[in-house]
Amino acid sequence: MRIFIIKANHAHTKADFSLKDLPGTSGRIDLLCRSINSAFLLSHGFRKNVRVWLNLNGPPNPPKTIRFEGSEIRPKTINPDERSIAKLIIKALKAGERIKDPSKEHQVLPGIHISNLTFEDIIRKTLKTAKLYYLHEEGKPIAEVNFKGNIAFILGDHVGLSDEDEAFLENIAEKISIGRKSYLTSHVIAYVNIFLDNLGI
Amino acid sequence: MRIFIIKANHAHTKADFSLKDLPGTSGRIDLLCRSINSAFLLSHGFRKNVRVWLNLNGPPNPPKTIRFEGSEIRPKTINPDERSIAKLIIKALKAGERIKDPSKEHQVLPGIHISNLTFEDIIRKTLKTAKLYYLHEEGKPIAEVNFKGNIAFILGDHVGLSDEDEAFLENIAEKISIGRKSYLTSHVIAYVNIFLDNLGI
């Protein structure tokens, strides 16, 4: 299984933004929509072996975390365009407004769950069953990594992870790189998926 | 220089579609928007060494062709989100309504040009200065290709190229592949860009 964990520093935690201007009003939920597209979609196909954690830390009620579970998501739930994926995120955030529990997940649609889990919570949960990699331009080249079993990739948004996040990940996640340039999160996910396909894993 | 030529079979050739439903009303201009994002954008950066030809062949006045010239496009013209890129395409299509000449390009914005050029016209123009590759899952693995000079990649949309297009390209473009699966056009472009970055070309 492939797991992508995306920490979104400013993504709004309430559906108080406009679909007409996602970059300007939502704390860059457009970036998360393209990341979902890259994680799950093939040409006329869907990757069931993928899980995505979107960890939203913007105003007004951080954190909110949405888990997309490829094996449970029904066909045609995830369409390729940003706007329709943004509508799924809005649906999840609306369901999340009522949640008080710090750890319990609530199902929004089959395979889509919302919670108050923190970035650290997600990492600790994932550690139990997968090897963690933090994607960073200064990491070890991905071609030199020996991938086995469940693989989890941690990615930042346009701002990137904080020094505190990086300190937390220090002995937990191996820093790996797909190249020396700094790429858009959605491009990194597309590249990693195709790279792993070619390894046959 | 890297050149991406995308043949969009059904993409509308007039701005008669809705930004609220690009996949359903525009003949999949959403796909072209994500392709522009993948072709040009880096995290906090822009690829000036890229040219993209969008060849639109949908109703009502096919073909319309939009050329995006990375070296001429001004900063902040291309934003990452689909909606703002769709607005650039709308602007180009509106400017294109008046065009009668079959070959002359008209500038819409610095680095963005509209014309009535056909797919074959674009290929013939590009052949003069670049080596052509047709991206197809059954092609030769990209890792075995010896890239040199200007490189042009031909890609289909969700429908793919027709038998006639493939026959036309037979002795003109080498068929190469980034993997055996069929990937979204925008993912292929993201992968190819990162792959070429890593070759240092």
Which percent band covers the strand fraction of chain A? 25-35%
How would you sum up the major sheet of chain A?
8 strands, mixed
CATH architecture type of chain A: 3-Layer(aba) Sandwich
The separation of the N and C termini of chain A measures 9 Å
The secondary structure category of chain A is: alpha/beta
Write the CATH fold name of chain A: Alpha/beta knot
Widest β-sheet, arrangement of strands of chain A = 6-7-5-4-1-9-8-10
- Rg of Cα set of chain A: 16 Å
Order of helices and strands of chain A: EHHEEEEHEEHEEHEH
Shape of chain A, please? Answer: globular
Q: What can you tell me about this protein's structure?
A:
- The first copy, chain A, has an eight-stranded mixed sheet with strand order 6-7-5-4-1-9-8-10, with helices on both faces.
- In chain A, a hairpin with a 2-residue loop joins strand 2 and strand 3.
- Chain A has one domain: 3-Layer(aba) Sandwich (Alpha/beta knot).
- Chain A contains six helices and ten strands, in the order βααββββαββαββαβα.
- By secondary structure, chain A is an alpha/beta fold.
List keywords for this structure.
alpha/beta; 8-stranded mixed β-sheet; two-stranded antiparallel ribbon; 201 residues; homodimer; Alpha/beta knot
